[in-house]
From TrEMBL:
Residues 333-342 have a biased composition (Polar residues). Residues 323-342 are annotated as: Disordered. It comes from Nasonia vitripennis (Parasitic wasp). GO terms for cellular component: nucleus. InterPro entries: RNaseH-like_sf, Vacuolar_transposase_reg. This is Uncharacterized protein.
């Protein structure tokens, strides 16, 4: 199978790859590599594998490890259009040293996942509320009577077995679960008090003011969840989406009206985080060129004229260096006439 896959890659003109470090439960480190390309007009993605790492994760060691994987699968560096990694300095430098700055991209979903932690940093007013919700959800999940009561009340309100909702718990390694936890809590809030009464351990429930704050902040959080979900797709191209969807996220959050002091402060902190995380995104050549060439977007979502000018210059340069394709000769009137008709 490996030989057949390598043969398939030989016929692919270009491809992009992702690289990510992770550690298993026994503390063994790995680097995972995936490859993405168009095959017979269809988006195709393959996992090259998860390869163990045995040395300190220096950029030099990671670069050599990735190059060894490339060599093993006969992946040619000049056919790689981009390599996507997270923002860790070591793997970022490894990608740049291996392929060059113009062929390296930081995962934008990973960058967007840092927006909430940035905004919540040293934000005691809202972190206290989040921790209360997390404690309630955790305790409820440990209590069978509380879970049964929550289910029973929803059934009485006309829900079916297939539409009953459960509380969700924030999982730090999953980027949107904090938002989903708060959303689900608000949806089930009318049932929470009666369900939690079934728990053996008394819990500190949210006050009306705290519920109002969560309801106020959720619409400000929602665009982040949308962005992460949309640009994490693996069955459609996402590169040309980045600049438009990030700028739309900024506009949506900026235009959201907050009705509480805590909500307004959160909005301000989030806007600062977005400005810091995405300040030079339009100057990324790969993203800018992809957006300009996408007929859905072109120049519409750009804010920086210099970024557009720079991307257009690169497109012109690429066109000038392209080899012209010899057109097929058109048949003339003479050679299309049948000799029998003369």
């Amino acid at each position: 199978m490996k030989e057949a896959f390598i043969k398939e890659l030989e016929d692919v003109p270009y491809y992009c790859l992702t690289a990510d470090n992770w550690t298993d439960s026994s503390n063994q480190s790995y680097i995972g590599i995936t490859i993405h390309y168009v095959n017979n007009s269809a988006m195709t993605g393959r996992v090259l594998g998860c390869f163990p790492l045995y040395e300190n994760h220096t950029s030099e060691y990671l670069m050599k490890s990735i190059q060894n994987i490339f060599d093993d699968f006969k992946i040619k560096n000049d056919k790689v259009t981009a390599m996507i990694t997270d923002g860790a300095p070591n793997i970022k430098k490894a990608g740049i040293d291996l392929l060059g700055k113009d062929k390296h991209l930081v995962c934008i979903a990973h960058v967007a996942s840092h927006l909430l932690p940035d905004a919540l940093n040293n934000f005691k007013e809202f972190n206290t509320i989040i921790n209360k919700v997390k404690a309630i959800v955790t305790q409820k999940k440990r209590s069978i009577p509380a879970s049964d009561k929550l289910k029973e009340m929803q059934l009485k309100d006309g829900k079916t077995e297939g539409t009953i909702l459960k509380l969700k718990l924030d999982v730090p390694t999953r980027w949107t679960t904090k938002i989903e936890m708060l959303e689900r809590y608000i949806l089930l809030e009318p049932y929470i008090y009666n369900a939690i009464n079934k728990c053996e351990k008394p819990l500190n429930l949210l006050t009306r003011e705290e519920i109002s704050i969560v309801k106020d902040i959720l619409p400000i959080m929602e665009p982040i969840k949308t962005v992460i979900t949309e640009i994490s797709g693996d069955d459609y191209p996402t590169c040309s989406l980045i600049i438009p969807i990030i700028n739309c996220m900024k506009q949506k959050i900026c235009s959201t009206v907050s009705t509480t002091e805590v909500g307004e402060l959160f909005k301000t902190k989030l806007q600062t985080a977005m400005a810091n995380r995405f300040k030079n995104i339009e100057m990324c050549s790969l993203l800018a060129v992809s957006t300009l060439l996408d007929p859905r977007f072109k120049k519409i979502h750009f804010k920086d004229p210099c970024a557009v000018s720079s991307a257009l210059a690169r497109i012109r340069k690429e066109i000038e260096t392209m080899k012209p394709v010899d057109p097929k000769p058109r048949p003339t009137a003479v050679n299309t006439v049948n000799s029998n008709s003369i």
